[in-house]
Amino acid sequence: MSQRIAVLSEHGPYEVVIGCGGLRTVGDVIPSVTAADRFLLVVDQAVAATHGAVVQASLGQDRVAGTVEIIAEERLKQMQAVEMLWDSALAAGLDRSSAIISVGGGLTGDVAGFAAATYMRGIDYVQIPTTLLAMVDASIGGKTGVNLAIPKSDRLGKNLAGAFWAPKMVLVDPETLETLPVRELRSGLAECVKHGVIADHGLLELISSRASLLVSGDVDAVLELLPRSIDVKRDVVQADERERGCRMLLNFGHTFAHAIEPIEELDLTHGEAVSIGMCAAAWCACRVGLYAQSDAEALVALLESLGLPTVLPQTVPIDSLCLAMRYDKKVSGDRMRLVLPTHDAAVVRDDVSQQDVHAAWSRVMPVAG
Length: 369
Hints:
Layout: E1 3-7, E2 14-18, H1 26-29, E3 39-44, H2 48-59, E4 64-70, H3 79-91, E5 99-104, H4 106-118, E6 124-129, H5 132-138, E7 143-149, E8 156-164, E9 169-172, H6 182-199, H7 201-209, H8 211-215, H9 219-239, H10 254-260, H11 270-287, H12 293-305, H13 318-326, E10 331-332, E11 335-336, E12 338-341, E13 346-349, H14 354-363
Helix pairs in contact: 3-4, 4-5, 5-6, 5-9, 6-7, 6-9, 6-11, 10-11, 10-13, 11-12, 11-14, 13-14
């Protein structure tokens, strides 16, 4: 039996459908959410032979106009990837009555969604996330985008070009997590912790009490976690779809994370970067009197119990990280907007000094010797 979570959007309502074995029934479900009968399948190369093949078989050869495999690496998440999808859509004969279906993690969904939002000024789009992180966060809310090169730097700015474009459906099949590397599973749990901190402390208690089961991918524990975490994301994006107000709270940890995630030498997944970013934000909140040290220590302990990093794997010049943060989307004028935790929830602040940000980075640097 599937669980359905309705999401309201300015582009029209859609549902997040959660159910084991959902990939095998995509072909039957698709007609209920889109009139399209020709699809471009955009698949993470890592799951093309497994989950991608199941989706393709369910849709049938007549409806799959073309398949494109994406290498899910941040350095490749640039406009060239979107242009490749535009070219593939044209070559496959897709028109405005066609649709794009993405199968993979958040990166695949971001690129495919941006292509759908901009191809012929917008065509239908279906998300089939195959990572926990994408299931609870990236696939919901209509954000799509790619990275841009930061001027006078060899680094990329995270998701600095993009569009809001809601999917027609998000199909979540927990069985796909059985093939997910444990490192990626833990990365998804970081986003669930984020949801708990900003909106649902009961979710934090659930994660804490099920930590070992969740890290092992226990299906029952995951099925308990998914709707609880998705509900938080749904409620926030419905209240503020275009990130003019409370949706900014979903960026808890991300302004710090986006400065370190593109650094190849650190070899961090998105969730690992967010974990470290949440710790930095927590220590920053302690500095400005919003958060008790005991709360910050409890957050660090929870993340560590999930096998997530809470300090950087190697030292990085803090001045360069502060510069990268200035190119984050949440900077307004010369003011950096940070999402900082409080005991009960989180708040957006634009008055945090560079000294406090610098001190926060210092707390997540590895100890020498």
